[in-house]
Amino acid sequence: MAKSSTAFVCQSCGNTTSKWAGKCEACGGWNTITEEGGAPPIGSGASKRLKGRRFPLEDLKTEDAPPARRITGVAEFDRVCGGGLVPGSALLVGGDPGIGKSTLILQSLGEYAKRGGHAVYISGEEALAQVRMRGARMDLANSPLALGAATNVEDILATLESGKPPGIVAIDSIQTLWTGALDAAPGTIAQVRTASFDLVRYAKSSGAALLLVGHVTKEGQIAGPKAVEHLVDAVLYFEGERGHHFRILRAVKNRFGPTDEIGVFEMTGKGLAEVANPSALFLGDRTSAAPGTAVFAGLEGTRPLLCEIQALVSPTAFGTPRRAVVGWDTGRLAMILAVLDARAGVGIGGSDVYLNVAGGLKIGEPGADLASAAALISSFGGTPLPRDSVFFGEISLSGDIRPVPQAEARLKEAAKLGFKTAFVPTGTRADNAGLALVEMADVVELLRFAPAPRASKPAKFAP
Ligand code: TYD
Ligand code: MG
In testing the pocket of ligand 1, which one of 176, 242, 267 has its CB within 8 Å of the most ligand atoms? Predict the structure, then answer.
């Protein structure tokens, strides 16, 4: 009798061992190891090399035109995918539970079917009646979308292979999938990986574009998206802050398009609405000029995006000053505070500092340095920044303001939204931007526009 092979697999990092342990040696996670039937651990010597079949090697030249992309009609989704879905490709949509992944997928497939495409939506989490109710709420009741409720991969593949190959097929979600070929429970890494692999293979051979939905927890753990990222051609993350109604779809990997693209949606009572002008959404109503707010002319992907940065500097009530940052990098804030202290003599370091990017947006760009510094100085000195002005520029450790890419696009967006002045790094060129440019070489120059108490003399640099 063949010895049944079981392995112990960490559900967090996928490391395989032959023994159970409370702590994973590879990633240090506690209680993450479970027993799974399947392949023997790599390097255990248990696998024997089998005889292979030869295949021809080919060159890079191609006569074929790239296949036409499948446009769903949900423009923001299509744009983040790189201009529609590529036939035969697999795409993973990850995100926190409840963020709106099912809504996004149902909407895209529903629209695709409405435009004459053949779309199949397989739900493993919700009963068909629930999906129908959701569809009706989203005005998709008349969409000729093919619906199914299944979790077994063999069943799903048998169903898909028996009919006309779909243009787009979506599986919601990979955590519910299981294959009869493995003993492991649904939701374990082995099941998720094997099931996804079979589906990706089906997509490649049939030419269907495959959409996989996967939940991630805050730590990005639990068997799922991380374990299949390498299997798929594109990974999109759907994110948003709880309590805010807009959602951002972000490409983190894309073999067929740019990875810095975002799509902005608003969750409404009738599904997701596309937000064509996100800057207006993130800026909100800016009627009063309060100290501590600065507008950052940012860039998300290829698209300029304006957002408000709010800072609050207040005397500390405790020995250690508090720092709280929402939507920006804590390390970056510490750096800006240190630079302001050392180069401009503005000693905010001893106060409590709160920094917030309005609307729940997350900024990753260093170009937001100047806007953050301006907001901090403005709050510290109690002077509002000049009205109708935007800021962008990276601050170096020496206090210099460095240029950032695509200044012209940022300025155009600011002008479009009615801003009059832009505080920019020296050397920023923009023809007919429609704004007055204030070129800044050093952070000290911010004090001309928002005076703030200076505790010490700024450090002088030897030229
Ligand atoms: P859902 O797509 O089920 O999330 P996920 O698949 O990522 O778990 O979205 C669930 C949330 O979206 C839920 O809190 C209700 C909200 N929602 C709306 O506000 N309006 C709608 O039209 C729909 C369909 C959902
Ligand atoms: Mg869902």
Answer: 267
pLDDT tens track for 315-335: 888 888 999 999 899 999 999
171 close to 93: Cβ distance less than 8 angstroms: no
Backbone angles phi, psi at 140, to 5 degrees: -115, 10
31 CA → ligand 1 middle, Å: 31
Q: How far is the CA of 197 from the centre of ligand 1 (A)?
A: 28
Instruction: Give the closest residue (by CA) to ligand 1 atom 25.
Output: 271
- Please give the Cα distance from 241 to 175 (Å, whole number): 23
Which tens digit of pLDDT belongs to each residue from 186-212? 878 888 889 999 999 999 999 999 999
- Tokens (6 digits) for 222: 């639990």
**Looking at ligand 1, which atom is closest to the CA of residue 106?**
2
Nearest-angstrom CA–CA distance, 358 and 267 = 18
100 lines ligand 1 (CB under 6 A): yes
CATH level 3 topology of 281-448: Ribosomal Protein S5; domain 2 (3.30.230)
Query: In b/e form, how buried is each residue of 65-77, taking b as 16+ CB within 10 angstroms?
Result: eeeebbbbbbebb
| pLDDT tens-place string over residues 111-125 | 999 999 999 999 999
Report pLDDT for 36: 78
Rounded to the nearest integer, the mean pLDDT of the chain is 86
- pLDDT for position 301: 75
- Closest ligand 1 atom to residue 267 Cα is 19
Which ligand neighbours the alpha carbon of 125 most closely?
A: 2
Q: Is 110 in the pocket of ligand 1 (CB under 6 A)?
A: no
The alpha carbon of 272 and the centre of ligand 1 are apart by a number of angstroms equal to 9
Residue closest by Cα to atom 18 of ligand 1? 269
**Contact in structure between 91 and 233 (CB atoms under 8 Å):** yes
CB 272 within 8 A of CB 100: yes
What pLDDT does 457 receive? 57
| Topology, domain 75-276 | Rossmann fold (3.40.50)
Task: State the closest ligand 1 atom to the C-alpha of 95, by its place in the atom list counted from 1.
Answer: 7
